[in-house]
């Protein structure tokens, strides 16, 4: 049987196939071939097929038993791409269920061999591990940390000049991404040190044209030196002829998935120690070499030992679709080194259900099978299929190509503001010729394409790739022509099909802020052409919560939203508190996720819902903020006093009343919606409902609201201090009162505030008899001259109590 070998990258797949073919003295496509997206070189003679990305999964989908193959090889497995993890899990399942004779080989220079051997175990015996020490020449390592205030590009360019002047051989430079490659290349352009060394600068990343990739990999022409600005693609899978010097920025760009917005963001992070060692090793493949590291040596103590497997941090939608296509609902039934996390996997299945790829039981649909057969992510496959069905196949292919490749619009280094976000403008660029074709990296043209994009710079290489992918998609998946060639206005409606969770509506206010269907927020530049749009379909976001930044999107209309998602609308009636009107209000809404499509006020609200919401608002605001009248507040204080001295009486504290609103307040708020309506409620009477009927008479006996004093006046008790209520009374009104009054059946003495004729306290006491015997005479001496019309008898115990002054002239 044939051998199929999985490489984690397209660039590595082509390079590996070419290298093996050269060893045999053949051309690629004879004994050795490859299958990658958009390019296949195999023939009837091919014995070894090097494949990448989702090719193996599609082979398994077409032939689950892999009948044509006798062996599957997973190369560079330490990179732990999701495709490799999924491919190995599916092949092991095929081996166990259908093809026990199928051979499986896992290869890597830095692999945890024992863990993989245990995974591949047959019965109790682990799979055999074959180790080859290989050949490594000595490497001298230098540390060149950035200077204070230097950007990464400046530090890297400086070290490149140093290496070219002091070392021999070609130079391989590791940078996190294409933007840094471009900026370092701009710094090196025309450099005298490189010119005198006849050094040629190449860029190497996975999305480059094949001819440019081949030039970067090939040996430098005689009499010249090569400087290759590469991403992590060159860490392990490639051998670049002539490299003797490695310069490592120490940075890598890795995917990080945010389930809330269904977005995989590329974060620039420190490399792991394993990756740093891999990069360093590239300098010693063919001769002694040199490695320059753009960091302090002591920083390495903080490096992670190894890079986290991609399956733990990336979008699992493609994986979930491929499993569903294979008839596997539960990923835990397969063998994995790292099982897909339950939360992200469940989120991926929710998205597939939203796209119509799986049914309510999780089984793949006919539409889902078509999606799985396309060399695109599930979102873009869904978009392309529906675009074809609607007669917009060309536009769908262009949108899919634009989103599959790196953005053709880029911000100029040092420029202010963001590039325009409108995807429809990018489609227009793809369709244009002339000015767009003349635009090259790092430059702009004042006419044509750049006029359309407001002066933004166009990445010519990315534009060419997008056009090529769009043409290939149209060729492989043709559709009937559109009724009109001017279909740019349909960009948003097609984009919404691929990103239904990121349909967004503008929030009220002046700032261009949007709410997405998934509940997350997004913002866009004030001067962006889409800033005034009411509706958006958002394809790409950046930044972080609470407001992500819109990178690529298209405008929608409400009619577009209704046409695409009417069957997903949810109609609901809510009864909720309306803060502006300070009342319970009913609303009838048509919702799409977190988005309100239509809204109207409901007047005939169920009484029980109104009551529940009004009471809930009391809890939110606090019982103390109810409109307590003086009498109601006094009743609450009396009950608090009773509870303080006898726990069998009800607790009327804020917390306890809040938890028992239904019992004491609920029966009194029927027919009321507004906070102001609560002023009509007898809150004191409502509180009394907490006291059993047979005990209510005891309230007045044990905690009376008023006490009658010797003058005949009924004076209100102040229960503000539940330990001992206060009776404020004029001193002349208690002449003849020999003992302090008590409450709770003589258990709690009243605190007397004895007042002057001007209602000012002259004595506070709980011992009235003691006051008459002692302090009274000091008070009498001090006040009788000030208040001569009021009686100040020498014997207050026998004097008549009075609330009046003596007549004038007496």
Characterise the protein shown here:
This protein is α/β, with parallel strands linked by helices. 33% of the residues lie in helices and 20% in strands. The protein is built from 28 helices and 31 strands. Strands 3-2-4-1-5-6 form a 6-stranded mixed sheet, sandwiched between helices. The chain is elongated and about 135 Å long.
Q: Could you give a quick summary of the protein structure above?
A:
The chain has 810 residues and is an alpha/beta fold. Helices cover 33% and strands 20% of the residues.
Q: Strand fraction band?
A: 15-25%
**What characteristic shape results from the CA principal axes?**
elongated
**Global mean pLDDT:** 89
Return Rg in Å. Answer: 41 Å
Helix segment tally:
28
Number-wise, the strands total 31
Structural class: alpha/beta
The side-by-side strand order for the widest beta sheet comes to 3-2-4-1-5-6
- Poorly predicted ranges (pLDDT <50, ≥5 residues)? 438-452
How far from one another are the termini? Answer: 133 Å
List keywords for this structure.
single chain; alpha/beta; 6-stranded parallel beta sheet; 810 residues; 31 strands; 6-stranded mixed beta sheet
């Amino acid at each position: 049987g044939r051998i199929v070998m999985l490489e984690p990258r397209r660039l590595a797949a082509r390079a590996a196939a070419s290298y093996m073919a050269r060893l045999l003295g053949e051309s690629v496509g004879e004994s050795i071939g490859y299958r990658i997206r958009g390019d296949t070189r195999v023939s009837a003679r091919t014995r070894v097929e090097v494949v990448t990305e989702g090719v193996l999964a599609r082979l398994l989908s077409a032939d689950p038993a892999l009948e044509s193959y006798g062996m599957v090889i997973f190369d560079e497995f330490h990179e732990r791409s999701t495709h490799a993890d999924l491919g190995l899990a599916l092949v092991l399942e095929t081996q166990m269920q259908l093809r026990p004779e199928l051979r499986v080989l896992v290869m890597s220079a830095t692999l945890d061999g024992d863990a993989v051997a245990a995974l591949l175990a047959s019965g109790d015996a682990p799979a055999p591990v074959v180790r080859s020490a290989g050949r490594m020449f000595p490497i001298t390592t230098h540390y060149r940390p950035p200077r204070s205030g230097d950007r990464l590009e400046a530090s890297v360019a400086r070290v490149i000049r140093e290496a070219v002047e002091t070392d021999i051989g070609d130079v391989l430079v590791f940078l996190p991404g294409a933007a840094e490659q471009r900026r370092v290349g701009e710094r090196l352009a025309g450099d005298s040190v490189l010119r005198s060394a006849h050094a040629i600068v190449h860029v190497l990343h996975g999305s480059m044209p094949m001819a440019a990739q081949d030039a970067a990999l090939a040996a430098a022409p005689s009499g010249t030196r090569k400087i290759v600005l590469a991403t992590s693609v060159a860490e392990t899978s490639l051998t670049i002829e002539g490299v003797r010097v490695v310069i490592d920025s120490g940075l890598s760009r890795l995917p990080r998935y945010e389930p809330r917005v269904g977005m995989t963001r590329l974060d620039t992070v420190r490399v792991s120690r394993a990756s740093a060692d891999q990069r360093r090793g590239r300098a010693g493949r063919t001769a002694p070499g040199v490695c320059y590291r753009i960091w302090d040596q002591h920083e390495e103590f903080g490096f992670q030992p190894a890079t986290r497997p991609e399956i733990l941090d990336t979008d699992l939608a493609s994986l979930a679709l491929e499993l569903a296509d294979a008839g596997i609902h539960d990923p835990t039934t397969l063998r994995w080194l790292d099982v897909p996390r339950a939360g992200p996997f469940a989120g991926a299945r929710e998205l597939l259900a939203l796209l119509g790829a799986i049914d309510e039981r999780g089984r793949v649909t006919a539409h889902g099978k078509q999606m799985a057969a396309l060399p695109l992510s599930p979102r873009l496959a869904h978009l392309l299929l529906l675009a074809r069905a609607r007669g917009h196949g060309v536009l769908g292919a262009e949108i899919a190509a634009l989103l599959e490749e790196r953005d053709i619009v880029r911000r100029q280094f040092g420029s202010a503001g963001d590039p325009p976000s409108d995807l429809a403008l990018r489609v227009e660029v793809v369709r244009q010729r002339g000015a767009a074709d003349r635009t090259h990296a790092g430059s702009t043209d004042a006419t044509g394409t750049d006029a359309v994009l407001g002066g933004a710079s166009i990445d010519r290489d990315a534009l060419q790739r997008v056009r090529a992918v769009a043409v290939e998609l149209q060729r492989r998946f043709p559709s009937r022509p559109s009724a009109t060639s001017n279909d740019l206005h349909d960009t948003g409606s097609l984009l919404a099909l691929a990103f239904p969770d990121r349909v967004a509506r503008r929030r009220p206010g002046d700032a261009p802020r949007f709410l997405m269907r998934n509940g997350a927020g997004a913002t866009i530049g004030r001067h962006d052409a889409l800033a005034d749009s009411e509706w958006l379909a958002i394809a790409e976001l950046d930044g972080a919560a609470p407001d992500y930044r819109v990178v690529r999107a298209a405008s929608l209309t409400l009619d577009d939203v209704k046409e695409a998602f009417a069957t997903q609308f949810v109609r609901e009636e809510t009864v909720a508190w309306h803060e502006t009107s300070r009342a319970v209000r009913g609303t009838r809404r048509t919702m799409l996720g977190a988005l309100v499509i239509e809204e109207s006020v409901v007047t005939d609200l169920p009484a029980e819902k109104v009551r529940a919401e009004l009471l809930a608002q009391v809890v939110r605001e606090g019982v103390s903020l109810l409109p307590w009248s003086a009498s109601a507040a006094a009743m609450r204080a009396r009950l608090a006093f009773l509870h303080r001295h006898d726990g069998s009486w009800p607790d009327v504290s804020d917390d306890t009343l809040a938890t028992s609103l239904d019992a004491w307040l609920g029966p009194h708020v029927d027919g009321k919606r507004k906070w102001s309506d609560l002023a009509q409620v007898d809150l004191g009477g409502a509180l009394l409902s907490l006291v059993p009927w047979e005990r209510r008479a005891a309230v007045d006996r044990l905690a009376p609201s008023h006490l009658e004093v010797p003058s005949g006046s009924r004076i209100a008790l102040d229960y503000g201090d539940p330990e001992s209520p206060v009776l404020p009374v004029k001193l002349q009104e208690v002449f003849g009162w020999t003992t302090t009054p008590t409450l709770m059946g003589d258990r709690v003495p009243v605190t007397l505030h004895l007042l002057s004729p001007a209602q000012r306290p002259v004595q506070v006491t709980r011992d009235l008899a003691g006051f008459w015997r002692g302090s009274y005479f000091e008070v009498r001496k001090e006040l009788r001259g000030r208040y001569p019309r009021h009686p100040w008898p020498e014997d207050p115990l026998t004097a008549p109590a009075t609330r009046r002054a003596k007549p004038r002239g007496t």
